[in-house]
Hints:
115 residues, mainly alpha, 5 helices, 88% helix
Amino acid sequence: MTYYIIKLIITTLLIVLISEIAKRNSLAGAMFAAIPLVSILAMTWMYIDTNDTKSAVDFSNSIVWLIVPSMTLFIAFPILIKKGLSFYPSMTISIVMTMFAYYSVIFLLDKLGVR
């Protein structure tokens, strides 16, 4: 149980730290946010939990296919804000669009036989 609490604290602290940095300097915050910290943490926790590099490699390879559809959020959100939508509707629409993009890519990869 202590291990899970430590994982939770480390992960939470990183997210809070990045948001605090972004408040002061959006470029620096964006740089830290662009580093795939969640993926790095997930692979690290997977390796610590299993001592198996294969699961981390498989996870990393799966992420590669989902990089392009993840850009949907970062493209759609500022466009919607600039079009006059407020924050929450813009974020909601961007998330739904990103989920659709993920589904589309996963569907396409499945049809092409990519696992």
